[in-house]
């Protein structure tokens, strides 16, 4: 059997694509790790707001009571202080809209993620 010899230039040639793939994979995992908790917090706040608005519509609670409950739930879920909560009624239907900007911090960049949560209950 003949012996195949590689030159010294060919020995590290396959490391660069592997390292590049490894770095890209690490970057994607990092981005997912940063965004997933923020997204889960938004979904939890949406579910809590749906429950509060449903209770407010079916029990005919005052707008002040519903707004206070939404503010308390927003504080418990760690929403930023720049949140704005709006309520309006149309007959028995109650609608709430929560707007805020979530800051997502990266090592060299700060992303301002605008969030709008809108829930509505018909009051039945």
Question: How would you sum up this structure in a few lines?
Answer:
By secondary structure, the chain is α+β, with helices and mostly antiparallel strands. It is 47% helix and 26% strand. It has one domain.
Describe the overall structure:
The chain is α+β, with helices and mostly antiparallel strands and 124 residues long. The protein contains two helices and three strands. A three-stranded antiparallel β-sheet has the order 1-2-3, covered by helices on one side. Strand 1 and strand 2 form a beta hairpin. Helix 1 runs antiparallel to helix 2 (63-76). It is elongated. It starts with 14 loop residues before the first helix and ends with a strand.
What topology emerges from the helices and strands here?
Elements: H1 15-58, H2 63-76, E1 84-90, E2 93-105, E3 110-121
Antiparallel strand pairs: 1-2, 2-3
Helix pairs in contact: 1-2
Mean pLDDT: 88
| Percentage of residues in DSSP E strands | 25-35%
Query: Quaternary arrangement of the chains shown?
Result: single chain
Helical content stands at 40-55%
Distance between the ends? 84 Å
- Classify the secondary structure makeup into a structural class: alpha+beta
Order of helices and strands: HHEEE
How many strands, what sense, and barrel or not for the largest sheet? Answer: 3 strands, antiparallel
Radius of gyration: 25 Å
General form: elongated
Taking pLDDT < 50 over at least 5 consecutive residues as the criterion, the unreliable ranges are: none
The tally of strands reads 3
What's the number of structural domains?
A: 1
What is the count of helical runs? 2
Major beta sheet, strand line-up: 1-2-3
